[in-house]
Amino acid sequence: MSDYNFAYLDEQTKRMIRRAILKGLAIPGYQVPFASREMPMPYGWGTGGVQVSAATLTPEDTLKVIDQGADDTTNAVSIRKFFERTAGVATTEETEKASIIQTRHRIPEADLREDQILVYQVPIPEPLRFLEPRETETRKMHALEEYGLMHVKLYEDISQHGAIATSYAYPVKVEGRYVMDPSPIPKFDNPKMEMAAIQLFGAGREQRIYAVPPYTKVVSLDFEDYPFEATKAEHPCDLCAAEDSYLDEVILDDQGGRMFVCSDTDYCRTRREAGHVGRLGTETPLQTGPEAA
Amino acid sequence: MYVAVKGGERAIDNAHAWLAEERRGDTSIAEMSLAQIREQLKLAVNRVMAEGSLNDPDLAALAIKQSRGDLIEAIFLIRAYRTTLPRFGNSRPVETAEMACDRRISATFKDVPGGQVLGPTFDYTHRLLDFKLAAEGEVAEAPKAEPRREPTPHVTSFLRGEDIIQSEEASEATPKDITREPMSFPADRATRLQTLTRGDEGFVLGMAYSTQRGYARNHAFVGELRIGTVAVEMDIPELGFAIEIGEVELTECETVNQFKGSKTEPPQFTRGYGLVFGQSERKAISMALVDRALRWKELGEDNLGAAAQDEEFVLSHCDNIQATGFLEHIKLPHYVDFQSELELVRKLRREAEAARAAAAQAREAAE
Amino acid sequence: MSQTDIYSGGFADPAVAAAHGFRAAMDVMARPGERREITGGIAPEGLSPAAASLILTLCDPETGVYLAADVDSDALRGWITFHTGAPLVSADKADFAVGGWAALMPIDQYRIGTTEYPDRSATLVVELTEFAAPNATLTGPGIKDTARMYLPDLALLQRNSMLYPLGVDLFFTSGSEVAALPRSTQITAEG
Fold first, then answer.
1. Are residues B242 and B264 in the same domain?
2. Catalytic annotation, residues of A
3. ipTM score
4. Residues of B with CB below 8 A from A207's CB?
5. Which CATH number fits the domain that encloses residue C157?
6. Residue B297 belongs to what domain range?
7. Shortest Cα–Cα distance, C29 to chain A (Å)
8. Domain encompassing residue C10
9. How far apart are CA A223 and CA A155, in angstroms?
10. A161 neighbourhood in chain B, CB within 8 Å
11. Which of C100, C106, C151, C95 is nearest to C128 (CA)?
12. Based on the structure, what is the number of domains in chain B?
């Protein structure tokens, strides 16, 4: 623990964030403006998610932080340490044991439970932003439920490429009303968003919070003749043989050697511990990264 | 388990240790003190205070030292510290007309009551490297004059009598605080000015420069530029009156801009306004030009489509802490998204390839 | 149980009590019809510990609070001012409105947000004497299949949900328990 208040933020800031979360839950998919604070980590590094987690944590919580599905990536390590230091909460790498999971770019493979909360770090909360850069315009579009521009974009993809050329941050419609950015998760994860857990989204730099309550309808935008597809690499995991998990492609050598492994490190570990063995056995043949250096 | 950027707490700790060593540099060279930074790199300290929105030279000096002279990093340290500070209250608006000026110039009149006071300026120096400084030479004491006792009136106040310059409405309304309320558009002028004063000096300078070069050109005269200290007063409810709690150094710039009149306003001079912590005159002048450009709507001018007229563009992009954070975050792992793009591009290529092959086959069959 | 002086009855450990209070509030707002314990705040006579704790959890100088006539008293005003600093305002300006159902009416005096900012709307904290037997079936976000709940005026609340995405959101409090009804919930009368 430190001299800072529980979970770093002062109480008034937490109340402001909590009020925004409640409005977000009452209007699923609507982006609630909030007076995001400057955090001791850069914008773009998850300041929105961190503020939402800080306002949500209680001392009894067990926190898990993942980036790209992994607990041991630099950003995840840094955020986990931040909360260990400022909130003194227990942390875990096991999805099963976590009560709050803060994530960047992935939804865990294991089904989340009603007593869990998933907090997403969001870089650009506005799904229409790349079609219309002006907030004044996109706000009107949401107000009028005028989402033609998005459908035109998706349709142009189809006419040009024969498919919708969006593979992550794939837009969804929430409870038949608001088009929402699911954060840059691969579209493989989109169908998981209809879940039992509460989903909270924090965009610090863009000063927006939004939410999806449990069991809310979350539909990936598509067309009848070009239905949405949740795609992944067409391989099983080379370590745990999972056929149903999102895979990272890892380059093994300069001869075109590749391995495919679960991006969700906890899911992969749990499966290997349960005796599942992939094509390359249970241990990676490769040790790289800064740790090895 | 393999991941492309495998952090590990040890790797992060080692990186931080290396950073600390690099920051210190060659240990046979004497370490810089905060007082040295505060006194000898004062303009850097000023910029960090201005864009960090915190008037504390010692903390700014510490931030500069810690950030190895990366001023945006220093500003970030100050901002992050600032948000944790409790708020005891608000000061009264400072009276810049009462400023004890170290520097005060006007480009619009040869001489003005209160005089042209050059002060400590680079303006007339020849930009020749002074090799004497390399030898750590002491400087001779500058000649001193008697300080002015009476207040120095604003130059624009002399134009007001003639009603030839647009008058600013006094308001008792409490302006919104951009650090406590989310930005929304359209933004009022108080919000725009607050955002610009902590905006990145380079960004605001570039925007101002673009108006000078014709993107929403509105020729600005520096009606007045003044630098000096003003008293900061705070109302104490228990006492029933305001007391002086300290003083701050400020740079204030008011531009006088020609204005031919519009559908709603008569021909008259209009103003742009800049107010920045410390001696930051480039920033204050830039701010005044951008402020003026952003006022097109309230003055009934045409929207020329220039970047500097576009409040959403200017206000959403002038904060260097937001900008650098988002820019630099692309260093973080994005391999999950990249993987999904890989799959997609491979699929699109396979389909395009198949379509091409089918077309070629059809052609062959036809021949 | 209740306090007569305005200075006591605040959260003993504000950061932790508010965190627990919020989790109860969030849980029920995310799951219409469910109830949670919310405690720690004790207001002067006339307000349940649940409502008192909600106020301590969510209100501060940035939120206007309206007290309906049935709960309005100098003691409660003093208590809210002392513990939260929240300004006491009229119904049309309220971020939070507190009181019994009848006293809070009419519902159309509260802010329902604008099409561009539907979040600029009031939240009602409705004091119930008890959570009576359910008279409504609920569906919508936060509800797996259906949920059941007692609501004071079905027709009026159905009209509120018709305004979606505008409308008010409601907490219901009784004793030390809280439940919620966001504007997104569809309501059908039972029986």
1. yes
2. 29, 237, 240, 262, 268
3. 0.97
4. 182-183
5. 3.40.50.11310
6. 96-120+150-167+181-325
7. 7
8. 3-189
9. 8
10. 348
11. C100
12. 2
